[in-house]
Design brief:
The complex is a heterodimer of chains A (227) and B (303). In chain A, 42% of the residues lie in helices and 9% in strands. Chain A has eight helices and five strands, in the order H-H-E-H-E-E-H-E-H-E-H-H-H. Chain B is mostly helical. Classes of the chains: A mainly alpha (227), B mainly alpha (303).
Chain lengths: 227, 303
Amino acid sequence: MKESNMDGLQTTATETEQQLEDMAKEMRLANDGLLEQDKGYFCDVRPHRVEPYKGIMESFANWARSQSLWILGFGTGCGAIELRPLMTSRFDMYRYGIQARPTPRQSCVFIIGGYASVKTLKRIVRSYEQMQGPKFVLGLGSCTVNGGMYWDSYNTINRIDQYIPVDVYIAGCMPRPEALLGGFIKLKQMIREGKCEGMNKYIDDFDWYKANQKQIIHDWNMPDYNW
Amino acid sequence: MNEIMTKAWYTLISLFVITNYGLLLGGTMARVRAKVQGRIGQPVWQPYIDILKNNFKRTGIYHGVMFYLGPVFRLAGGLGTYLFIPAVYGSLVFSNFSFSGDLLLVMYFIFFGQLGMALGAGQSGHPYSPLGVSRGLAQMTAFEVPFALSVIAIAAQYQTLSITEIVAAQQGGILNWVAFTNPLAMVAGMISFLGMSMGNPFSVVIAPQEIPIGPPTEMQSSFLGMLQTNRAIFNGAKLVLFMNLYFGGATNIWIMVIKTFLIYLYTVIVDASFPRFRTDQSIRFFLGTPALIGIAAVVLQML
C-alpha cells in the first residue's frame, strides 16, 4: 500500500514538472522569423507587466514624467515636417520640457507622424519595443486615425492603434504645430492623471498586437519582441 | 576618528553643493543657448526633472557586467576629479582631499571616467557606441597635449604639483593670477578646455544626428540618470580646476560661483558661435597652434 502511494506521488511529481516545463515553453516566444543559427543571439522571454507605484509616489513619478517628455527623433511620415518648427523660436517646445532624443532607448514619446507604410510599420514596431517604459504614443494626423487620404491604399495601414497602443490622437491633415503642442498638453494631463498605461496594455494584449502586426508584415525577420 | 567623521561630513556637504550647482548651471546655460537662438528655453530646473524621470523608468535593459560598471566608473571619475580639488581656498568644508601631488591625480581622473565609459559602451554592442568612444578618446588624447603642457608650465612656474599651493601663490591681487603671470599657459589651457567641455566646434563625439548621441547610445533609465548626475559633478569639478589653475581660485563660495559661471559662459559662447569640426580636424587643431603655445609657455618658464 505504502509503495503504491509512493509511486502515485512520483507520478504526480513528474506530471507537475512536465506541466511546468510546458508552461515555461508557452511563456517563451517562438521567434519563428529568425534563422535557427541566429536564435541564440536574441531574447525569447515575453515582456512582463510592471505595476505602477501606489499613491503619492506614483503621482510624483507621473508629474516628473509629464514634465520631461523626450521625443524619439524618427519621422515616420509626412507629419514629421511639423515637428521641426516645434524646436524653433516660434514654437519652442523646450519651454514645456519637451526635447528630441536620437535613440529609442532614451526616449519616452513616439510620434507617429502621419501615414505608416507597411515598410515603416516594421520599424515602428521595432522602435516602440526598444523604448523603455512607461512610454507614450502620439498619433499625428488623420492617417493615424483611419488612414485619412490613404484609406484605400495598398501599401499603408489604416489604424495605428491596432499595432501599437496610442495615447493621444491629433486629427487634421496636416495638424499645425500649435495642434501638436495642444496634443502634448493633453498628453501631460493624461500622464499626471495616471491614464497613460499604454505599455502595460501592449503587454496584456501582446498576442493580439503580434497577430495584427504579423498579418501586415510578411517578411518578419526579427525576434517576436525587440528587447 | 572624530576628525575623519567631520571630514566625511564636509565632503558630503561639498558634493551636495557641487552637484546642485552643476545641475543649475547646466539648466542656466541651456537657457543662455536658447536666448542666442531667440527662444525662451527650458526651465532652469529641467535637469532635475530629467534625472528624476530617468530614475522613475519602470524597465531597463542591461547588456552585461561591464555595461553596469560603465556609468559607475564614469561617476567614480567625476567624484575623483572633484574630491581632490580644493573648491574654495582656505575653507574647511570645501577644501576636499587636496594634498601635495593632487594635480597629477586629477589629470588621471579626468581620463579615468572616459576609459570606464568606453568599456561599458563597448559591451552594449551598439555599433555607434565604440564609434563615439574612438572619436572621444582620439580627441581627448589631442587636447591633453596643450593641457599637459600648460600644467607643466604652471608646475615649473610655482615649483609644485599641489593645486592648493598653486592657488596660494596666486593670492594678493588680480595681477598674480596665472592668466597674467603666465598668459601663454592660460591660453593653451583654455583652448584645451573647449575640447574637454565637448561643445562646438568639438562636439562631434556625441553628434546626435550622425551617431545617435555616441557612447551612451544604449544607456537608458537609471544608467542615464547616473550619467546625467555625473555630468553635473564633472562639469563643476572641471570648472573649479580651471578656476584654480588660471584665475586665482576662490576665497569664498560666491567668488567661486561668479568665476566658474564666467568660465562656463566662455565655452557656451564659443559653442553657440561655431560649427562642428570633424574628428581629424579637431585633432589637427589641438596639435597645431594650442600645442605650440603650450610649448612656448614651457620654454619661457625654463629660460
